[in-house]
Amino acid sequence: MTHDTQPATADDWFARGNACAERGEFETALACFEKVRLARPADPGVYNNLGSTLVRMERFPEALERYRQAEALDPNNADIHHNLGWILEQMHRLDEAVASYRRAVQLGKLVDGSYNNMANCLQSLGRFDEAHEAYRRAIEIAPQSMVYYRNFVQSKRMTLDDPCFVSLQKLAQHADAMTPDNQAQLHFAMGHALADLGQNDRSFEHLLKGNALHRRSVGYNEAMTLDLFGHMPGLLNADVLKDKRGLGDPSASPVFIVGMPRSGSTLIEQILASHPQVFGAGERPDFGKALVAALARSEADQSKLNFDAMRHATAAQLAPLGADYVRRIGIEVPDAARYLRITDKYPFNFINVGLIHLALPNARFIHSRRSPVEICLSIFSRIFQDVPFGYDLGELGRYYRAYDALMTHWREALPEGVMIEVQYEDLVDDLEGNVRRMLAHCGLDWDERCLAFHQTERQVNTASASQVRKPLFRTSLERWRPAAELIQPLYDGLGPALLEAERKRAAG
Fold it and tell me: Repeat TPR: residue ranges (predicted)?
């Protein structure tokens, strides 16, 4: 019988820590690295590894502290500055992240990733010229990395003579020699660039190819997702919402902006965040995290939530869930006492609208709506981190139809005054009228600054970062559409009822 012998030296503990981290045994990895730290307190590598492990555990403040310690011990290490930039980016401290990435590119050589990440931060901060320059530097250093081209063309309208577009066209001639991921990134980049140039048919050809390639690498269980959507109305019907109302946390600060991606939710948040009493927190998955924590508690814990028994939910279960959400999102709000409302525009909160209402009965919802075909084609034109259903037109249409059915249920089941719907097309046509309606819904006084939302300086960490810094024009409603036969799977997925409703709406 053999025994797993204890490591004898700090190097052995370091190796074991790396092996444990690789296997996902993070607590054990931390313990190993701590032994190394005690033996070698001046070794920057162990602090860096502690930070990286804590990152994988999503313990970001602790990770930042460890990276800072690594930086103090080795201030000229580009990798450490890159890691600092990344953790600061995750914590939405983008100005500091830019400074760390800038230090990384000053110290390192192959720093294309630092330039790319710096550009992403600069774009979120609205510093577009600096972002474009950083993207170009990333491309110069790593001209075969297609994700940099995609990021760049999505941030800047292309021209025929732009060196980036010229390079893309040359690379596209040899796309078959690339890895599948690089091929997909290239096709999305070309699709976006050609759309800017008005070459829409060619653009959509590339988008079809890019989506088909990317779909192969994405895990998406359509049956499970649609079953979940179909299950929600039975668990949280109007009677349950009425019987359990008022048991949750009393906070009135949250405003949840829900809906499909690309529906105009970023614009709605930018308008509201232009009000001095509103903090725009962006897309925060905090309610989902609070829900997972509530479901995972031990059976002996009175605050443990049973998702399949919401008819029997108690204040001891619902109030802690709401309070945990308020605590989590409050961490992101500097000087929280200044604000009456905090907006959370994580679009997929639409799934949990009923449960959020029970956990936070005084929260308000704004449902961001837009033409279903417009939304789906916009989603189809981009790669998103958390949209696994967006790369097949049929799946995309069926997802939208299930989302629409669920939102119809919430609309009918929620008490009056809890949720309003804002149609993007109506917002463009009557900005002031809709802004007044949203402010009144949130219990806020009128403020002219909400009409000048494009002048508001704040972080915007979504694909709409550049659009919300421009005034609204009707041209934003006039999207080119491919030939019907090319998008027939989308039409089939959406179904005749949604298409007829869109036709009637367009006809006025």
Answer: 10-43, 44-77, 112-145
